[in-house]
Amino acid sequence: MSARKPDPRTGDIMLRHWREAVPNDRIAHLIKDSSRGLQRALQMRLARHNVSFGHWVFLRILWVRDGITQRELSEEAGLMEPTTFSALTSMEKLGYLERRKLPHSRKNVYVFLTPAGRQLKKKLVPLAEDVNEIAVQGIDPADVATTRRTLLVMIENIARDESEHADPTRAARMRRMLDVIDNEPTEDTDTKKSTDAFGV
Amino acid sequence: MSARKPDPRTGDIMLRHWREAVPNDRIAHLIKDSSRGLQRALQMRLARHNVSFGHWVFLRILWVRDGITQRELSEEAGLMEPTTFSALTSMEKLGYLERRKLPHSRKNVYVFLTPAGRQLKKKLVPLAEDVNEIAVQGIDPADVATTRRTLLVMIENIARDESEHADPTRAARMRRMLDVIDNEPTEDTDTKKSTDAFGV
DNA sequence: GGCGCATGATTAGCTCTCTAAGCATTTAGC
DNA sequence: GCTAAATGCTTAGAGAGCTAATCATGCGCC
Q1: Candidates 1.10.10.10, 3.40.50.300, 3.30.420.40, 1.10.3720.10; CATH matching A23-135
Q2: Predicted pLDDT at B180
Q3: Cβ contact (<8 Å) for A155 and B23?
Q4: Looking at the domain B24-135, which fold is it?
Q5: Fewer CB under 10 Å: which end of chain B, C or N?
Q6: Using CB atoms within 10 A of its CB, is residue B185 exposed (0-12), middle (13-18) or buried (19+)?
Q7: How many CB atoms sit inside 10 A of residue B158's CB?
Q8: Where in chain A is the domain with CATH 1.10.10.10?
Q9: Cα of B18 vs its chain's centroid, Å
Q10: Is B47 an 8 Å CB contact of chain A?
Q11: Regions in chain B scoring below 70 on pLDDT
């Protein structure tokens, strides 16, 4: 039900493209396509500085706080440990970070940015700002806010569904994503102001 | 700029979480996270029927129309040909489809669903409907519509950016995505009504 | 103080996606 | 009619993500 009700509210009936009329699906499509688009747009730009999109995710976290374990890094990134592991391995080879064992633990591996890794921030953050700016060009900020709110609820809904479907690992990760989103005050491409606030 | 304007419109100032106040970024985050969430939710369900998420994409297209070439299939899916190729290869092994050369061309390969592949529709489409329904639970349909509209413009913005950045291949794909979105009348999980309309 | 579970790092191997490059066929131009 | 370009399929190889399994260390409990 609920499909293509004529909706006599407004007079622009002809204008009301099916886009707006069709119900639930396609939103998943749109989300996927826009996600891929955004990722590619950033990727293109990062590539010119020899940074892959996968590395970007971890750099962002480390610029805020380094000296943390791989495990913590995984959690903040919302990625599984093997993914983190391989990304860090290649980033270490590129000289962006170092993995060190500290004296008080022979188990944990702590990740530190090198000066090179730290300096990337100045070059890379503006690229992400560009992409975000381009993406929302010409869109009413209120609509962007609505979109943000909607997506957040969708993530919550999906996380709840995952818990109910009894898959503790997945549900936990999903919940972690939400936590991170909630607790990230201003970590990356927010405003110039907040970027400065990190002590770039 | 445009960050955290107080916006005295409403009285719920305290309630206006930073979520709504922060500007451009994080939307990319949210989109990525929700995309992964939606994908995983569907994946979980498809897996129980031995169908991977990658196959779903092509099945959806073929349920509407089969007997098309790999090339056309790639375009409709918005994926590169090698991606299509490998997906089709494994789907053929699973017995969901057949690749046939027709007499009038020794170059083109035409893809046809087998009865098995066609029957999956009845089982799988409801799964996608479930996921979409769960995802938008409790959200004002108007907000979902706004989100859809916003994402569409974002995709357009990114596509335009890609053309400007002189990468014809990428930009072309992005534009194709939009075309497909525009021209897909009722291909999958729309309403029960439209599902029936495909002659399931 | 030692046994065993918990936790962090790693390895192996899978999927999905991409780019780049190859080969085969069809079409177009001279 | 024959060569050259365009088109379609395929192969090869990479990256980013995942799960499952393994190994080492740390910690709790008896």
Answers
A1: 1.10.10.10
A2: 60
A3: no
A4: Arc Repressor Mutant, subunit A (1.10.10)
A5: N
A6: exposed
A7: 26
A8: 23-135
A9: 30
A10: no
A11: 1-25, 165-200
Report the nucleotide nearest the CA of residue B78, measured to C1': C17
Which of A159, A53, A65, A69 has its CA nearest to residue A118? A65
pLDDT for A165:
65
CB B62 within 8 A of CB B72: no
Which helix (DSSP H) or strand (DSSP E) does residue B129 occupy? helix B115-135
Structure tokens, B104 = 């009038």
- Residue A104 pLDDT: 84
What pLDDT sits at residue B86? 95
How do residues A167-200 score in pLDDT, each as one tens digit?
555 566 666 666 655 554 433 333 333 332 222 2
Nearest nucleotide, C1' to the C-alpha of A108?
Answer: C8
A126 and A188 Cβ atoms separated by less than 8 Å: no
Residues of chain A falling short of pLDDT 50: 1-24, 184-200
Nearest to B38 by CA among A166, A23, A35: A35
- Judged by a CB distance cut-off of 8 A, whether residue B144 touches chain A is yes
